[in-house]
Design goal:
Keywords: Glycosidase, Hydrolase. Its EC number is 3.2.1.177. This is alpha-D-xyloside xylohydrolase. The chain is 21% helix and 26% strand. The chain is an alpha+beta fold. It folds into 3 domains: 4-257, glycosyl hydrolase (family 31) (Immunoglobulin-like, Sandwich); 265-346 and 391-424 and 432-580, TIM Barrel; 588-678, Immunoglobulin-like, CATH 2.60.40.1180. An 8-stranded antiparallel beta sheet has the order 4-5-6-7-21-18-17-15. A 7-stranded parallel beta sheet has the order 30-28-24-23-22-32-31. A 6-stranded antiparallel beta sheet has the order 3-13-14-20-19-16, with no helix packed on it. Strand 11 and strand 12 (127-132) form a beta hairpin. Helix 5 (391-407) packs parallel to helix 6 and helix 8 (521-531) runs parallel beside helix 9 (553-568). The chain is globular and about 85 Å long. It starts with a strand and ends in a 9-residue tail after the last strand.
Length: 679
């Protein structure tokens, strides 16, 4: 949220009160509370009248994390949804001298000055990693008279900010305004399906704002030398997270918000979808499955998208009997061929669905403030939305899924979850509707994931989810949403996946060859390479089938070759997933995450590391040209050449390369000293 008019003034209609300095403080065993007047420092008792104070509470939920809570007026927040955080009882020391208070958790220390201006300095292992100084902590009144709490941290020379969820904009977030607000906007805008109020700085810290609502970030876009973040209301909690490097910070952040679990080994294989609005029935499905087998393309999962149910009845959780007269028999046939089965669902119930009347009667849907079922026509005619704050509604929804599992369904694609109303609605448990907008997806995906854990076991549970918020990394896998069939969209999808990985999520996928439109054979083959060198791989589309033979004989060959390559890499991928599960470091990694001390890697968003040892640079051009950078592996293998896994050609580190590739090759370089095929 922007509220300034240049360096000195405030925009017309806005008002800002800044915390001046620390007037007094209370020191408890593990909590430091500061009382900071607005406006100017207090020098005599008369100045304590009529001015107001900002109360600042400093605590630590885990070692190497320091949490600051800024409070104007204390309000009852029992009606507010809260992220589930894994707090421990870290050793905390609080000291005071003539100049400052020092609050230490692990190797992270917050130094708070006693001067005429409020000043916060974060020091990790002796190094200053973040700073908040003059006119940083404020209470902002907007044009509508609504209050916001705002904070600013310095943005240093050469400092770069990453993360904030799966964002399709520039990988480096400097200069951007980012609102943490889940929206269904495709992959071609600043809107995002998966908004996470957490970022990483290459200066050695992470910043997490513990608020499920609309957190607004201005990353050098309001005041160019600062990162500003604000939330509506009268309090805000944020945590600065220290670590020895970016991976260490991610580890600590996911200790707090949840680790990505392991996923079943079959999920790494190729997923094939019916696509979205395409016409299909049992005959079509078996033709696709048999067609893949006939062409020796290994298939692991078959996915039924929306139209396994009747139109206008999404969701009724019943197979359309005109197309699938014997669903149990069909699913058994697929299982006999060694396949797992995924079906599409969402959390919306169309008015024509047989479930609508039952859910409405029992109070299982989000309601209007006058007690009626909230409805609209934007997706399904007269649709309602399941209220997962109601335990009975959650059980009702889960029972429908358990029936599908009993029929033979192995996993679910949890689509949507972003278009959640905020005005004129109420929840069963009284939750604030605005704070529920982003948080809803957590409850939705958790409800579905819990069904699979209960029925299949933890080792077999997996989703294919589109929306996410903090903690959603515990319910994988997520895919990138509605991309278009062109190279710019392929590139924006990769940028988003790399940002997503910098936000605590371990696995990520995308619609191979693009969701919208029909891809060219060229794009189909190039995106197939990229897709099968991602953590999870799925052919999917909107109006077009994505079976390889529709795009030519060479497309079949490319699909077969790269599916076989991925299956050969499965032991390596499983080892990398174990690392992801234990550390929170994603399987698909931005170059800066793996090589944080190499300045050339700080901006790269057209290549990535697949685990520790594979560098992948997808081809984004019709002429087959790829431009890629080879870093120095460091350690015992410093200065050694990398080798292309497919061709054997070697590349000296510390250089950029530009080369052309046919459809059977691309830059897939093996880190010196490793062998991903030997796991």
């Amino acid at each position: 949220m922007k509220f300034l008019n240049g360096g000195w003034l405030v925009k017309d209609g806005f008002d800002v009160k800044y915390a001046a300095n620390v007037y007094t403080a209370n020191v408890e065993e593990k909590k430091l509370t500061l009382f900071c007047p607005f406006g100017v420092p207090i020098h005599h008792p008369g100045q304590t009248l009529d001015g107001g104070i900002l109360t600042i509470e400093v605590t630590s939920p885990r070692e190497d994390i320091i949490t600051t809570r800024l409070i104007n007026f204390k309000k009852d927040r029992s009606h507010c949804p809260k992220f589930a955080l894994n707090e421990s009882d870290p050793n905390v020391t609080i000291t005071e001298d003539d100049d400052k208070w020092s609050f230490t958790s692990g190797k992270l220390t917050l130094e708070i000055s006693k001067g005429e201006t409020i000043d916060f300095k974060y020091v990790y292992d002796g190094k200053v990693i973040a700073h908040s100084g003059w006119r940083a902590k404020g209470l902002v009144t907007d044009l509508e008279g609504r209050l916001h709490v705002s904070e600013q941290l310095d943005l240093g020379v050469s400092e770069k900010i990453y993360g904030l969820g799966e964002r399709f904009t520039n990988f480096v977030k400097n200069g951007q305004t980012v609102d943490i607000w889940n929206e269904d906007g495709g992959t071609g805008t600043e809107q995002a399906y998966k908004n996470i109020p957490f970022y990483l700085s290459n200066k050695g810290y992470g910043l997490y704002v513990d608020n499920p609502g609309k957190v607004s970030f201005e990353i050098g876009s309001e005041k160019v030398s600062r990162v500003q973040f604000s939330v509506p209301g009268e309090e805000m909690s944020y945590s600065v997270i220290g670590g020895k490097d970016l991976k260490g910070i991610l580890n600590t952040y996911t200790d707090l918000t949840g680790k990505p679990p392991l996923v079943p080994d079959w999920s790494y294989g190729l997923w094939l979808s019916t696509s979205f609005t395409t016409d299909y029935d049992e005959k079509t499905v078996m033709e696709f499955v048999d067609g893949m087998a006939k062409r020796n393309i290994p298939l692991s999962v078959f996915h039924f998208d929306c139209r396994w149910m009747k139109e206008l009845e999404w969701c009724n959780f019943e197979w359309d009997e005109t197309k699938f007269p014997d669903p149990e028999g069909l699913l058994a046939k697929l299982h006999e061929r060694g396949l797992k089965v995924c079906v599409w669902i969402n959390s919306y119930i169309g008015q024509k669905s047989p479930l609508f009347e039952e859910g409405a009667k029992k109070g299982y849907f989000i309601k209007t403030t006058d007690g009626d079922v909230w409805q609209w026509d934007k997706w399904q005619a007269g649709m309602a939305i399941v209220d997962f704050t109601n335990p009975e509604a959650t059980k009702w929804y889960q029972d429908k899924l358990k029936h599908l599992v009993a029929q033979g369904v192995d996993c679910f694609k949890t689509d949507f979850g972003e278009r959640i109303p905020t005005e004129g609605v109420q929840y069963y448990d009284g939750s604030d509707p605005e704070l529920m907008h982003n948080y809803y997806t957590y409850l939705y995906n958790k409800a579905v994931y819990d069904v699979l854990v209960e029925t299949k076991g933890k080792d077999e549970a997996i989703l294919f989810a589109r929306s996410a918020t903090v903690g959603g990394q515990q319910f994988p896998v997520h895919w990138g949403g509605d991309c278009s069939s062109n190279y710019p969209s392929m590139a924006e999808s990769l940028r988003a996946g790399l940002s997503f990985g910098m936000s605590g999520f371990g696995y990520w996928s995308h619609d191979i060859a693009g969701f919208e439109d029909k891809p060219t054979p060229d794009l189909f083959k190039r995106w197939t390479q990229f897709g099968l060198l991602s953590s999870h791989s799925r052919y999917h589309g909107s109006t077009e089938y994505k079976v390889p033979w529709l795009y030519g004989d060479e497309a079949v060959e490319v699909s077969r070759e790269f599916t076989e390559l991925k299956l050969k890499l499965k032991p390596y991928l499983e080892a990398m997933a174990k690392e992801t599960h234990e550390t929170g470091v994603p399987m698909m990694r931005a170059m800066v995450l793996e090589f944080p001390t190499d300045p050339a890697c700080e901006d790269i968003d057209t290549q990535y590391m697949l685990g520790d040892d594979l560098l992948v640079a997808p081809v984004f051009s019709e002429d087959g040209t790829a431009r890629f950078y080879v870093p120095d592996a460091g350690g015992d293998h410093a200065g050694e050449a990398w080798a292309n896994l497919l061709t054997g050609k070697t590349y000296e580190p510390g250089r950029w390369y530009t080369e052309q590739y046919d459809y059977h090759t691309l830059p897939v370089l093996v880190r010196p000293g490793s062998d991903p095929l030997a796991f």
